Amino acid sequence: MTTTRRTLTATDLAPLAHAIGHTLNDVTRIRGGSKKGVYRLTLGDGSTAVAYVWSPAEDLWDAGPGDPRDPFSHASGLTLFTAAADRLAAAGVRAPRLLHADSTHTHLPADAALVEDLPGGTLEDLLNGTPAAVPKAEALEKTAALLDTLHACTGPRFGKVAVVDNGGSSYGSSCAEIVVERALSDLDELITREPRVAAVRSQLTARLGALVTQVRPRAEPSALIHGELGPDHVRVTPDGDLALIDIEGLMYFDVEWEHVFLNLRFGRHYDPLRTESLDPARLRLYRLAMHLSLVAGPLRLLAVGDFDDPAFMRGIAEHNLGEVLTLLENAS
Asked: What is the distance between the alpha carbons of residues 169 and 68, in angstroms, rounded to a whole number?
């Protein structure tokens, strides 16, 4: 099944603006957001807000509702968003302020929320050379401080914030077990889509098994992590503050999972974010699993959706496949 997006209009979104006491002058879809619709609303007084719309028509993954007890289930939906927003606020980590949430489909035939529109660009823009309110080095220092604040928050169990903070528990006995199960699932899916993976399936299965046996049980509680914290998910405001966006995947988990993703996405800018307290065995396991996920995910999206830049998504899959094969070769 292929999902085709229809861009919502001012007529569609006007009731959401009315809910916060405004008329609506204009609507612009914001590029990105493969799991939800993201729209900038220009209100009658000239101010702006951002609308998030969670509906099957806006979700390019065609994944359907996920089971929140699976930490890696589809991270999309108003419930996950509001739980994450509340937890970040309690932790002192900035995210766009929630202006209105509608889970009753009063204003749209879908869950929706209005949040503050944070002016300025992303940290990715800044790292790529776009001028911002703070120099690059200072922005990275602030990102490291933000990570320290985020990761210092812990939960009684691993899992999505919406589950754990409501007293629930996730499937599985450990973070490492969940990661391996997901990696094996990705591997099963990939052998039908990528012959180069099919050719080394047994070696990859054995490598994952060997790596997980090297991970020792951990007594420390799981840390609060974003889950997909690339520089594109950090906004830099005109006053030089940082705010996290795309927060629905917020969960308590091994901090090594976050750092593997940070290393991949920040690349040569990762060093200021590095910490010495990470477990090398977990890093090795999670790196291979992460690369497998970043092959399977893009290929899955291309198979079911109408992503607006398929060449970019294929490039992600190809790069990470190269990393998978390199890690396998270096292990032999």
From this structure: 10
33-49: string of b/e by CB count within 10 Å (b at 16+)? bbbbbbbebbbeeeebb
pLDDT for 132 equals 87
User: Same domain, yes or no, for 105 and 241?
Assistant: no
Which ranges in 214-278 belong to alpha helices (H)? Answer: 255-266
Give yes or no: residues 322 and 258 share one domain: yes
Give dist(CA 260, CA 263) in Å, integer. 5
| pLDDT given for residue 208 in this prediction | 98
What letter represents residue 128's amino acid?
N
Residues 6+ apart with CB under 8 A from 193: 296, 299, 303
DSSP string, 28-79: EEPS--SSSEEEEEEETTS-EEEEEEE-GGG-TT---S--TTSTTS---SHH
Range of the domain at 70: 10-116
Strand order from edge to edge, sheet including 37-43: 24-29, 37-43, 48-54, 111-116, 98-102
pLDDT of 64 above 90: no
pLDDT bucket at 204, cuts 50 / 70 / 90: very high
- CATH code, domain carrying 84: 3.30.200
Q: What does DSSP assign to residue 6? A: -
Whether residue 3 lies inside any domain: the answer is no
Distance CA 90, CA 98 (A): 14
55, part of any domain: yes
Identify residue 165 by its one-letter amino acid code. D
In a domain, 1, yes or no: no
Structural domain count of the chain: 2
CA dist 204 → 56, 186, 189, 210, 319 (Å): 34, 11, 13, 10, 17
Residue 312: CB atoms within 10 A of its CB come to 10
**Cα–Cα distance measured from residue 315 to residue 307, given in angstroms and rounded to the nearest whole number:** 13
Final residue before a domain boundary, out of 87, 116, 145 = 116
